[in-house]
Design brief:
This protein is mainly alpha-helical. The protein has two domains: 43 residues, no CATH class; 39 residues. Strands 1-2 form a two-stranded antiparallel ribbon. The longest helix has 36 residues.
Length: 82
């Protein structure tokens, strides 16, 4: 295989890799952010994912407390009607 053919193959491989990077990343400020190709949304960084998980845990705890409160109210209403 000649040097020119190898150079063309490498150039095509680089061009293909570069288009893959563009497909799965998007610039944000001075960084490239990973993008979900199906939704087009940014994939959260580790810090963002931890923050989202903490917020979700807080939301779940609040919902569980509300469910417990409503059950107590139902139990009280049920006992009054008995």
């Amino acid at each position: 295989m000649g040097k020119a053919v190898v150079w063309v193959e490498r150039r095509l491989m680089f061009k293909h890799a570069a288009s893959d990077v563009q497909e799965f990343t998007r610039p944000e400020d001075s960084l490239l952010r990973a993008v979900d190709p199906q939704t087009g949304e940014y994939i959260p960084s580790l810090e963002e994912a931890v923050e989202m998980a903490e917020q979700e845990a807080q939301r779940a705890a609040t919902a569980e407390a509300e469910v417990a409160r409503l059950r107590r109210l139902l139990d009280q209403a049920s006992q009054r009607n008995s």
